[in-house]
Design goal:
four-stranded mixed β-sheet; about 35% strand; about 170 residues; alpha+beta; about 20% helix; three-stranded antiparallel β-sheet
């Protein structure tokens, strides 16, 4: 069954239109989520994208994906985390740290502190080949540099990390 996404306008308002998974038309946007899941010891979960993925196969990244039609951003973050890595989250655990506007989508970025072990992860093989816990420096190297995140995005992440290290 194809994923159905809501279409947003340039101000991140739902238009009332929907689309099947794919590229939004010019002037249309979709909503995505990135989830930075970390332990109380400040180790971040990163995942290696499945080699069968259409975009960025085999690259290390954080958990994330598209918000489905009718979902709120936070619900999409909870669903994506459980689907991809098998970790169940509660709304009260998620902290929205920022929203980035790109050419075709908006990205809501969440930070989640949760006590878990890597052995708790149950990988969705279509999405994820491998997971590991890494420190901040390695997370920056793996998640940012491999996907060439822009300065605005990196600034939001660094600011959030500085707050959790206080």
């Amino acid at each position: 069954m194809a994923e159905i996404w809501d279409i947003y306008d340039e101000n991140a308002n739902r238009t009332g239109r929907i689309m099947e998974r794919g590229e939004p038309r010019p002037g249309d946007y979709m909503l995505c989520v990135h989830i930075y899941l970390y332990t109380p010891e400040r180790k971040f979960l990163v995942q290696k994208r499945a080699m069968s993925k259409e975009t960025h196969p085999g690259e290390w990244d954080v958990t994330g994906g598209a918000v489905l039609s009718g979902e709120e951003s936070i619900d999409g973050a909870i669903r994506e985390t459980e689907e991809e890595v098998g970790i169940k989250l509660d709304k009260s655990e998620l902290c929205l740290i920022g929203r980035i506007k790109r050419k075709k989508n908006f990205v809501d970025i969440y930070f989640v502190e949760k006590k878990f072990d890597i052995s708790d992860c149950m990988l969705q093989k279509e999405e994820v080949d491998e997971v590991k816990l890494v420190g901040y420096d390695e997370m920056i190297e793996l998640a940012f540099n491999s996907r060439r995140r822009d300065e605005e995005y990196i600034g939001i992440i660094k600011g959030a990390v500085e707050k959790i290290h206080k």
